[in-house]
Amino acid sequence: MFPELNNLLNTTPDRAEQGKLTLLCDAKTDGSFLVHHFLSFYLKANCKVCFVALIQSFSHYNIVGQKLGVNLTMARERGQLVFLEGLKSAVDVFFQPQEKPHPLQFLREANAGNLKPLFEFVREALKPVGSGEAGWTYPVLLVDDLSVLLSLGLGAVAVLDFIHYCRATVCWELKGNVVVLVHDSGDVEDEENDILLNGLSHQSHLILRAEGLATGFCRDVHGQLRILWRRPSQSTSQRDQSLTYQYKIQDRSVSFFAKGMSPAVL
Amino acid sequence: MAAVATCGGDAGSAGSAVATASKSNVTSFQRRGPRASGTNDSGPRLVSITGTRPSVRNGQLLVSTGLPALDQLLGGGLAVGTVLLIEEDKYNIYSSLLFKYFLAEGIVNGHTLLVASANEDPANILQELPAPLLDDNCKKEFDEDVYNRKTPESNIKMKIAWRYQLLPKMEQIGPVSSSRFGHYYDASKRIPQELIEASKWHGFFLPEKIPSTLKVEPCSLTHGYIKLLQFIQNIIYEEGFDGSNPQKKQKNILRIGIQNLGSPLWGDDICCTENGDSSHSLTKFLYVLRGLLRTSLSVCIITMPTHLIQNKAVIAHITNLSDIVVGLESFIGSERETNPLYKDYHGLIHIRQIPRLNNLVCDESDVKDLGFKLKRKLFTIEWVQDNYLRQERNIYPPGFSYLLKQKDSAWGEGSLQHSTFLMSFLAKATAFASRLVRHSEPLKQTGSGRICQAAGPRLWHDGRRQEAPGLLGIPP
């Protein structure tokens, strides 16, 4: 969790909003620092987190999480964190036939499959256990990242359906939050990715967009972050609030500053 | 990801050999190396594997790619458990050279090799590996090389953009006499036969594998890819690289080399058509391969003819599914071969992606314009002198082209007339100097016609150079 980002978003772990879909997107840069931020944020907020990590291994998030002050191993042991490690599960599902449907069952299917088994997994992970549960505040689903699902053969519609089901269950029924990361391919013609990104942009309450600088690589400013607050259900006559900051990623934190106000330049 | 300790943790079994984490709460973030192992915890000593070293940033295990210059650009080396994707140059000359350096490094360090190819027998590939340079011989050659190499350009002050004088030059690394990490190779000699015989290697030659009855149901992966994945998984399990085999505990690195992945010889049509039947076969392969590598002590190099892939979106997917992506662009056959600007170099090397593993930051190098040359049997990577590429790309220092535009509009507009005159004088000088640079199509002439309207700055997209009129007419 980056304290500066919390200030920009005007949230703290104690009083975060519920029932929201947050879209993280990155263009020409790596936006994974936002995923680490939200993971540690919700773990500190004492939420029950289901993390679908499709692109990196558990120890990667664990090591970065330790720098940010959360221990994923402990969280997993006490049941606060349900971690689906996509890479390991893909190896399992690919080499051994499974009896019951596996969350990543679509890897074995020749045609474009659907994500129903994955949704069942998420629902199972986040469903509130009866009394006697150790009182987590609200459930959170975190997906890193959805573009991998597109590159593995699923259609944009299947992924949008999955997010729709997750939102209905997690956001509306269980009053939790959903955070997803999508890569923006920029000027490369990727229709499916554009459909997915546009569809999610219209559904989300908060969009964090990490962009690389237009002038290229810079050692002191790693990119630009655009924050957009939306109200998807209400009328669009009210203007959405938008802010832009530039950032520099350091070893344990990320520092944000207004455009052009990097300490290296001043 | 520090692969060694995580295999013990993730597999859940009774630990792998190297990081026998007897304590259940041993964090996977452990510094490798004998000095740290005995100090804070009473756990077993970590045995260091030959040819590896811990990263200075986070203690992750690194292996050398076989090219010390490339190791330096990648932040010290290739992390164990990752994939290095090389985008081939047009005639597959330098990418196969990098492939061979990687394998030769494995032989010199005593690592196990797994060579997969669809067009060349792995035994032949191993015969053609370059010979390692012994320390005393290559030190002599290096001294000669440094003496003969003229660098007058470095002494001339750059006239146009003074700020760029302060940027660092690429350091030439000399041979380290007692290094166990990163060796130099003589590309003109073959590796001694006894080294190959002493090494342990497995070959996968696609035409030789008999099509067997598939135990898995067809899942849209090409037949060749399925067999290769099964082969790799078999080797990893049988030889204990992932620590799950109770009989075999391995203290070595498996170096996997896959040549020309994605070419039609593998049965994939991704280089032939834009939306083929098996359009996701390659990405699924890369995904499962990544899963195999992350949970074992192995490292993989893949060369891929991405310049043939028709669907550009697929290249973006492939880049996201690989860890390190290096693109090679050779000057052979292009007009730059005869361009005096590039007379010292054989091509350009683009570091397109460096992973952030176990970290928020990554070791990105500051220099982005890198050229390589294969000179005196050594493969070196250098920063191409900045002003030549600037001229080619038609990018002027900020404010310059703006003033040119002012010149072309009617006199009297803007209050910068006097400085415009001075700038136009300089602009004329530059335009004269860049007369050698052909524009692909003549731009509309406005104003007096004495100065051609220069193209605006072309920005980078995706780290690749975008077509600029200053380029000598190379189609992308």
TrEMBL record, chain A:
Q: Quick one: a GO biological-process term for this protein?
A: locomotory behavior
Pull one GO CC term from this UniProt entry. Answer: elongator holoenzyme complex
Subcellular location field: Cytoplasm; Nucleus
What Pfam family is a match, any one?
Answer: ELP6
Hey, which pathway is this one from?
tRNA modification; 5-methoxycarbonylmethyl-2-thiouridine-tRNA biosynthesis
- Just give the chief location class: cytoplasm
- What's in the keyword line of the UniProt record? Cytoplasm, Nucleus, tRNA processing
Task: Tell me which family the UniProt entry assigns to this protein.
Answer: Belongs to the ELP6 family.
How is the quaternary structure described?
Answer: Component of the elongator complex which consists of ELP1, ELP2, ELP3, ELP4, ELP5 and ELP6.
Briefly, what is this protein's role?
Answer: Component of the elongator complex which is required for multiple tRNA modifications, including mcm5U (5-methoxycarbonylmethyl uridine), mcm5s2U (5-methoxycarbonylmethyl-2-thiouridine), and ncm5U (5-carbamoylmethyl uridine). The elongator complex catalyzes formation of carboxymethyluridine in the wobble base at position 34 in tRNAs. Involved in cell migration.
| Protein name in UniProt | Elongator complex protein 6
Species whose genome carries this gene = Cebus imitator
Encoding gene per record: ELP6
TrEMBL record, chain B:
GO biological process terms, alphabetically, are: regulation of transcription by RNA polymerase II; tRNA wobble uridine modification
Q: In which pathway does it act?
A: tRNA modification; 5-methoxycarbonylmethyl-2-thiouridine-tRNA biosynthesis
Region (Disordered) location: 25-47
**InterPro entries recorded:** Elongator_complex_protein_4, P-loop_NTPase
Q: Name one GO cellular component term.
A: cytoplasm
Q: Which UniProt keywords apply?
A: Cytoplasm, Nucleus, tRNA processing
Q: Where in the cell is it found?
A: Cytoplasm; Nucleus
Question: What biological function has been recorded for the protein in this entry?
Answer: Component of the elongator complex which is required for multiple tRNA modifications, including mcm5U (5-methoxycarbonylmethyl uridine), mcm5s2U (5-methoxycarbonylmethyl-2-thiouridine), and ncm5U (5-carbamoylmethyl uridine). The elongator complex catalyzes the formation of carboxymethyluridine in the wobble base at position 34 in tRNAs.
Under the subunit heading, UniProt states:
Component of the elongator complex which consists of ELP1, ELP2, ELP3, ELP4, ELP5 and ELP6.
Q: Member of which family?
A: Belongs to the ELP4 family.
List the protein's name.
Answer: Elongator complex protein 4
Which organism is this protein's natural source? Cebus imitator
The record lists the lineage as: Eukaryota, Metazoa, Chordata, Craniata, Vertebrata
